[in-house]
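Table S2 (continued). Query chain:
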Amino acid sequence: MKSINISLPDTMRAYIEKQVAQGGYSSVSEYFRELVRPDQKQRAKERLETMLLEGLNSGDATEMTATDWEDIRQTIRERINKRQGKFFYDGCN
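Corresponding output:
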């Protein structure tokens, strides 16, 4: 794990140290991680909502064909192969 150094005014430092002591945090780092997690979740939620809206606004829906499904399967096989660095055989061809 890498560390980040930040500069804070004395009043903010005192506030943070008080929160750590009173909030049951084991360290200042734990306190900051607890502050960052909700921001990460919120941004991920916003990104998902944006992607969903883009999908909804991308045009009329079309029915999936057997070729579409096979293309998806092939893409997944290629991704697995790339991650594993070896040949992948599903035995279903």
